[in-house]
Protein 1
Amino acid sequence: MSAESASTNQRNQVDLLEFIDWSSVECLNQNSSHSLPNALKQGYREDDGLNLESDADEQLLIYIPFNQVVRLHSIVIKGPEEDGPKTVKLFANRQHMGFSNVDDFPPSDIAVLTEDNLKGKPVIVKYVKFQNVRSLTIFIEDNQSGSEISKVQKIALYGTTVETTDMKGLKKIDEH
């Protein structure tokens, strides 16, 4: 896709998959035979037959750390019309959250997913809240039909890495 055909906001956004620190990714309340890699890992998440499914109830708490600081622009959460996620709370840089304390912290953003979102339409996050993200916690609070099991087919995060120093910008100082 050329830069001209992409919208201005989307132009520089990349799939942040390669910046995920896989050794520290966690998902609470996942069904062990339908676990997070089904929705998050390349290849698996493109297969609609593979789902991340909740276990004891409809809630899922997903912790995704990055191996470098990123700016999060948007998130795609695909799921089936009935059991796909509905209310999704996003927390930037909030570690060690559990179901017992998830309501103790204000989310950085809240998304209520529509049918279009469940089919792959990205949710644009409150960009100002996601400028220096070292980790993202995704709390799936409920699903579309209120059933006991939430199903997620795909989670994709889009944004950019944070450049620590822009060397080009530093050279303009010698103007006297």
Protein 2
Amino acid sequence: MASKYTYSFFRVSKTNEVESSAQKYRDLRLKALKTSPDSFSSTYEIESAFTDAEWIDRLTLPDRELFICAATPVTDDPSSTDGIEWIGQVTLRGPSSKADFELPVEAGQPPQRSDEEEERWQMLSLFTLSEYRGHGLGSKLCQEAINYLRSYQSVPRQVQVRLIVKAGNDVTVELYRRLGFIHAGKSTLVEALIANGDEHLVPKDLTSTKYSDRKGLIMISRISRS
């Protein structure tokens, strides 16, 4: 059966049509937080209170690059833009210095190369709305982000992409393995929050074992620029 949609993948501009992009991103993000709360460290209650200016600020952060999958209904008019919906997202955070990217020795992460030898990015917030799953869109979104890292500049020649997956999320782990990521250690929840730029979500009371247990699977991929 022919698909009712065509899909496109792109990096969101921080300068063109920012207000419109921020509204679309807000709609996608809030729907994702509401329908799949366990997929994110933040909550619908927190982000639904953001102002329009705050959504624009999030979209234009200098250390973030947002990539989107958009679904376009198949119609008789190929030039029509009616009904286009943002339905998937993934974010890159970086580039990070060697010092900022380091984790405690207990995490088991391989030693970092010098800043001159390697650029470092954290991949986070991969999500596709449930009604659009089963078409490999998450994998294509990640590939769009990786292609950007390969091409947006030429040096340094090596790029490390890291992500942290919740324990037991076997489907997502397999997706990343198909993209070339390998197991490279385990992180605590606090380390994962900090790596993803969510330091504000780290609670003051860290007595719960969920913050100290190493249950987050660290995965890395090293890519080369031509």
Protein 3
Amino acid sequence: MGWGDLGVYGEPSKETPNLDWMASQGMLLPDFYSANPLCSPSRAALMSGRLPIRNGFYTTNDHARNAYTPQKIVGGIPDSEILLPEVLQNLGYRSKIIGKWHLGQQAQYLPLVHGFDEWFGAPNCHFGPYDDKSQPNIPVYNGTVMVGRYYEDFLIDKKTGESNLTQIYIKEALNFLELQANKQQPFFLYWAVDATHEPVYASKMFLGTSQRGLYGDAVRELDSGVGQILQKVKELGLANDTLVIFSSDNGGATYAKEMGGSNGPFLCGKETTYEGGMREPTIAYWPGRIPPGVVSHQLGSLMDLFTTFITLAGGKVPTDRVIDGIDLSPSLFKQAVNDRPIFYYRGDEMMAVRWQMYKAHFWTWTNSQKEFEHGTDFCPGQVIDGVTTHEQMNHTTDPLLFHLGRDPGEKYMIRSNTEEYRQVMPKIMKIVADHKENLQPGEPQLNLCDESVMNWAPPGCDKINKCLQPPKSNPYNCTWVH
């Protein structure tokens, strides 16, 4: 979802009443970011509190390329990473993930191996349908075993956009909440639904109900799900003891046009390190702790949820590694603003840095000229000379500087011969130098692909007659075009 997809963020059709209500009763965080402009690295950062360059969710096959976890990927979240549910599990919390995992589909990478107690969802995107010969359809898991496959047992009609998946995910969430409340069991629920990711889908009751077409239908259904979850938390008497965060893994996919969402006033979208690719619509809700109707301009990141949740649960954040996430408690409860930078990475390259209201681009590019000429445009209708480049441009000796308060769309460069540039840039360069001096990249997990590791025979496939014969192993370097 994009920053501009919610009514409270300015979407004119205002079709997200539950999320808008959540913001009115909680805190809006308009300066909140993902740790990457693409799904898998962003989720790895959320779970580990660490930049993808540290936790290994990047590729070195080519410079500054986005990479993720299609089902042919060999790698996944390393055992050496300490994930949020692992820490919470040791503190007595019961954790469940509902929806997309996306941190590796081989057995050693799945959620229940990394701290989650329950899972209902899939290891990969809901792409397909596939023929189960050259490529298997994506499995859906309930716990440690698969219970079916997308397009076979869990239907998605690509012609009409109809699918009941979101309703299934809502029911799973409500049941989980009831069970934990009955047991008086502390819990962590990661509701990772994916209806707004192409191919976009919605259930029959929501199809055709939005002014925004199928994408709007999907947003309305997700909004309804959030409303039901918040209502259930209230009914169970848990509202005053529960912190709820809504956010997104990356910006709206502008290349998908009307199926890709809105990034509001920001430049470009998913896959890019411009504001539209990484600034996320974020709301925090906790009655009695977070005052209603407040706005925080704290620079926040999905990685901060790692540190914040552990701190609030009474745990200790790991000290044997660099944790990039900060504790947001002072911002959430006391409206404090902590001065910290935001780093924008694309693959193995630090592309940009935000400090206070300033953003400096050290590298720029959207996507290749060849790809653009074949119809893939990451910045449709947005051409900024020297900024939205179709080749990788190195600005490390003379970074491009913008003021995001005066210019949220990154349209008007602050020239290097101005006093403002001369005052600001040395401070940003010092931040970057310190960051790179202390950077120890993790082992890249997204370099190798192999058709034999795809979802041919997941655990439990034999019980439902869904096992497929894998091909012989033939590992090769993945090709990442973005």
Protein 4
Amino acid sequence: MASIEGLVPITRNFLASFYDKYPFSPLSDDVSRLTSQIRSFTADLQHQFPLTQGESLLVNEVDRQPPHKMDENMWKNREHIEEIIFLLEKSHWPQLLQQQSTPEDIEFGIILGQLKEKFLNTLKVLESFQSNNSENIFNTVMTYMPQDFRGTLIKQQRERSERAKQAEIDAVVNSGGSIRDRYALLWRQQMDRRKQLALLGSATGVYKTLVKYLVGVPQVLLDFIRQINDDEGPMEEQRHRYGPPLYSLTTMVLSIRLFIHLSWGRYEHRNLAGPQASVLQQAVDVYTSEFERFIKFISEVFANSPFFISAEEAGAMDASRKNEEYKEITVLAGKTHEVSLPVESINSYIGWDFSLAPGKMSMDIGFSVECTNSTGQKTFGFYLQMILPYRRYESDQGNFCTCEAGKYTLIWDNSYSSFFKKVLRYKVDCIPPVAESAQSVNEAEG
């Protein structure tokens, strides 16, 4: 095992000392004050008019504590913002308000348009934060992955997974699913990503087939991603430090949503009075400004947080393990070198990384792949020639997805050379299909 000298285990105590450098300025007192006023207004509406079943569910959600996990709170804020934007669309206003029959209605309509724009801007800030944070985490993890065909495979797996997730979301939208339905799916997908991280860190489930390809990844990284989201793991310190203000903002936006929702359902019986409209406007101003301030702050914390050790530290580790990954062989002039890989199932990946030892003059070597089925017949010759035509390289790394089971032979050809031997340094492997299974999900939950 390679030395891990100089690597600092990332623990909750370690993060606590780091977070001391990033104190969050308390939320404005207006957050609690305006939330209380909005809740008082909704209590009056509940008392005067019976609730529908859907309204009761929303009231129950307001009365519950916000989720404990910070990322779940981010998704909840995003969901409630979208629900509010939906309510603030003119086509969803109460019929009486849509008619704009009085100067007061016209003025209130202008205010609602302004509030909608504020929420739209905040939604863009939140979406950008979530997208950038996800990309940054993935890119950080990838700095520790082997920079060869295995790293490429991990990226390809992620791209396919994200396309499949987007297709699921599109299907929900196209089938007329609600905003709530869409966000329930989005959060489930987020939890799937988390399970995959846990599986990677613990080398269980489908990742039993991948862990041996992660040679060179510091164990401290695998340990961290395995327990990153444990209830008492390192992230609990983040929830302890920065959760309370986020929880308050989650409660505030949900209270605003409930107030607008109840008001729209009772508008013909009780128009929003001047003071209530003013409080609503203030509440939206305070929520959007404070939430955007929190996102800006937490973005800086995340960008600098030592969740993973630096790539420089990882690169300073003993290089002996990397050398053990490669084989080195001399291919004599006029000869070839072959490596055969048995492939038991389709959609496996054949990957390679090779180079020639530098010499006094520029040299290359031919490279191609053949497939032989169980009867000894060479198959898919045209297919392989199309995607992997014979070429001469100084070095190359790549991979392809197999179309059938059989024996795949990687061939390095130096037969065209009459005088020069080639020193070939290479590694190859066959990685079975990696697809989330019910068994692996159960292992992650167990």
